[in-house]
């Protein structure tokens, strides 16, 4: 839908009116036949039709193009009243700057920023409303440090709140201690398994060294026995030589 023509100051050229809603063009698009439409209007029309609502020429959404620059400039220069005129805003601005003004307009209806509050109020009156809003929050005047809603003042009990907080902290601490304990046990188990594995490897290496040493001793004894035998044979041969 376009901008209500009643909001505009002075004459509005017929070419700047939407061919469907007959209001001033909003986010305009132009067909090849040069008729202009609001984007929302023409897309809604093409859901059920395949031609231009003015001259019935066939058109397709892919053929729609932005408005000519000179027409866009004429459109942006139009002067109109703020949408909050009924609430007291007397601002008249160009269509080009309208969005910026209405985003900041003091007469705009905005929601209260307090959670739970459903009041819609003019921006200029927001601070006054926040000061008395039943959903406003503030720090407990008794010094417990809690942020409370005005609606909860009668039910607020500093001792009970602090006791609850203490219990929550205690529970959280117990959980963290248990987590740290489980993590340390897991690490110790991992280190213990690693040490057992290393011990088994070292034990196997020691047994292998013992086996090698035993074989070496056996070889040494065999060599010594062979040496004695050889010496005896030499002595016997020496005796036989003397006798001869």
- Report low-confidence residues grouped into runs of 5 or more: none
Percent strand? 5-15%
Structural class: mainly alpha
- Give the averaged pLDDT, no decimals: 87
Biggest sheet, spatial arrangement of strands = 2-1-3
Instruction: Give the helix level as a range of percent.
Output: 40-55%
CATH-defined fold name of the domain at 5-104: Herpes Virus-1
Shape: elongated
Oligomer class = single chain
Coiled coil: 192-243
Protein name: RNF41 ligase
GO molecular function, one term: zinc ion binding
Domain RING-type: 18-56
Provide a descriptive summary of the structure in words.
By secondary structure, the protein is mainly alpha-helical. Among the domains are: 5-104, Zinc/RING finger domain, C3HC4 (zinc finger) (Herpes Virus-1, 2-Layer Sandwich); 109-149, no CATH class. It is 50% helix and 11% strand. The chain has five helices and nine strands. The protein has helices at 39-48, 69-77, 95-104, 126-132, 158-243; strands spanning 28-30, 36-38, 65-66, 79-81, 92-94, 109-111, 120-122, 137-139, 147-149. Strands 2-1-3 form a three-stranded antiparallel β-sheet. The longest helix has 86 residues, at 158-243. It is elongated. The termini are far apart. The mean pLDDT is 87.
